[in-house]
Design brief:
Layout: E1 14-18, H1 23-34, E2 38-43, H2 46-54, H3 59-62, E3 64-67, H4 73-87, E4 92-95, H5 108-136, E5 139-144, H6 157-177, E6 182-187, H7 195-198, H8 202-211, H9 217-230, E7 234-235, H10 240-250, H11 252-267
Parallel strand pairs: 1-2, 1-4, 2-3, 4-5, 5-6, 6-7
The structure holds nicotinamide-adenine-dinucleotide (NAD).
The site of nicotinamide-adenine-dinucleotide (NAD) has 27 residues, from helix 1 and helix 7.
Length: about 270
Amino acid sequence: MSDEPRPFELEGRVAVVTGGAGGIGRALAAMLAAEGCRLAVVDLDPARAEEAASALPGGARSHIGLGVDVGERAAVEAMVVETERRLGPIDVYCSNAGIATGPGLGDDGMWEAGWRVHAMAHVHAARSVLPGMSERGSGVFVVTASAAGLLMMMQSAAYTATKHASVAIAEWLAVNYGGSGVRFHCLCPQGVLTPMVTGGSPTAESELRASGHLLEPVAVAEAVLEAIRADRFMVLPHPEVQRYEQAKVADRDRWLGGMRRLLQRVTG
Ligand SMILES: NC(=O)c1ccc[n+]([C@@H]2O[C@H](COP(=O)([O-])OP(=O)(O)OC[C@H]3O[C@@H](n4cnc5c(N)ncnc54)[C@H](O)[C@@H]3O)[C@@H](O)[C@H]2O)c1
């Protein structure tokens, strides 16, 4: 068998992006529209989803916006049916919606919210679209996890654990469905300049942009496009994450000690 990347032509495909009205999802939708896809932009608020769909090249003639809570199985199933009725079979699914789950060990509500959106949303989506993709022998399924799913978000136990679940689900799907012609990608960025990080404050946005520490969402979308073209599972818009993960796996005690020292420096 050849190790050459299998080509996947995005032109003319039907794509779903969840969390597509904001941040990284909006940039993914714009990238896919620019590549010639017709989009279903999915987000919690239907008006925001429709606005984001109309702002894409081709506008409301080519794309649709749908208000869906991706943590609800029946809502995801209905969204897939409606998208396929209006646009045709789904070729590309970006399971991208995510939430900040709060500091420390958090409360039960934060954990519940994290499991719904960072774990079960991917499962609901996989159950809804993978049978069709497998039958057609073609498709792209992207899970937006986080570098916190490979390493840690020191401020939040729930974000760390539920994003580890996102990575595990993406890997499990790639093993169990990868032989059917569907390809899988797992997006694991560190800091990206989006409302999740800025809290929607223009002042925070301009200060964070000036600090130069965060990637722009468009750079993350370009990294996903590059991974689709290269037929590569792991998408690391911050390449240093690979080195950090290798250091973790090589010596966990040493890695934990380094993380404790980093936490002390950060919290003073
Ligand atoms: N911004 C970062 O630094 C960063 C880093 C690593 C990973 N991520 C991940 O990237 C993804 C996108 O995050 P972002 O930074 O663009 O955040 P964002 O808050 O800008 O966008 C997330 C979008 O998801 C939507 N959403 C939330 N819960 C939903 C639900 N239940 N159903 C449907 N839509 C829902 C929100 O309304 C929002 O529009 C998330 O999975 C996030 O965890 C972000």
